[in-house]
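Q: What would this chain look like folded?
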Amino acid sequence: MSIKGVIISKATPQPGAKPVNESTSGLIANGVAVASKLELDKTYVLYSKADAEFLGVNEAYDIANKVILYHHISEFFEEAGEGVKLYLRVVAQSVGVTDIVDTENNHAKALIDDAEGEVFQLAVAFNPASGYTPVVDGIDQDVLNAIPKAQVLCDWAFSKMYPTRVILEGKYYTGPASSVPDLRSLVNVVAPNVSVVIGQDLFFAQKLSEYNSYAAVGTCLGTIGRAAVSENIGWVEKFNLTNAKKERWLSAGLSDHKSVTDAQSEWSILDQKGYIFPIKYSRLDGFRWNNDHVCTPVVIDNEGNMNESQIRFSRTIDKAALAAYGALLPSVKSPQPVNPSNGKVPPIVILNFKTLVEKQIDSDLSGEISGRVVVIDKDSNLLPPNPELKVGLSVVPMGSADTINVKLKLTNKVE
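A: My prediction, written as structure tokens:
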């Protein structure tokens, strides 16, 4: 007989996959080393602008070296918030954008590996050396060439269960919009995990002539980091880029260093072609991103399956993949009963695994998906020669209205 009344013991956590914070981001950029502080080709972890300043990267660093590094970092934390983890890697100014993202090189790939899968989105900022002459086809040709390489990088990362997406700095935009490449229909390129930003904080870009052609990947990266995986970075109510007190985004432009409001007639074309840039809504203060585009067409097949045609869709499916991975990983190589006549999974095992995944998805993506379906293939065989459990997972993302269409009329009666 016990006289202790209530007995409480501490549960031992079960081993699973390393959890992910989808706000955690990465920034890789060209720059200059700082003696005894900042080394090239080394990955650093920042939690604030002060951490960058400790490395010798501050506003004076940008001006002295005629690069944009501290500004991108500062903008990231302005949007995402201090305390959000940012992985930083600085490479030589001689390294081009395509070379940075190429998996044959140890640049972006090294940052993702160093972060061990924590980087849920990675921005690439381009600061070429003085004298660099861009070959421009709407934007710098090196940036266009980097798009398929960046997708290969994302595919490689996903194969390691390190899902991420790449935000490229679309420098040197040259209109008109009708003549620039359509990022949603590039020849032989489908890059659902790659986006291109061509917008800039015009007030900041006026500080140095070297800044005139920049695009605000740090700001965009921070907005993505601040957004839930289900949220469009163009959400009007939540993501106002302008802060008058901090002199942020008082005016906005494209990376041709011209006011975005002067190019209003071209917004629709640029939007349809999949570029990310700031816009201003009538009778509303401040600037917002136009949308969360990626470099792929929008595809929906006859069965209703959708591709990852927006940043929020790829973030959602990646978070679902990580949830399923975390739920199932502890069960790999675990003993499971099988049907003695054929080695296939019995109903109880099907139910157990289905429940396992459903609970994890419902926990990790609560409020971030509209629905989910988990199916365990009843023909899965857990005996040699190829013991494999086949799991099907479908998620329905959250929707958002790009346009709200109101029909207005005068009437002499209301019914």
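The longest strand covers residues 369-376.
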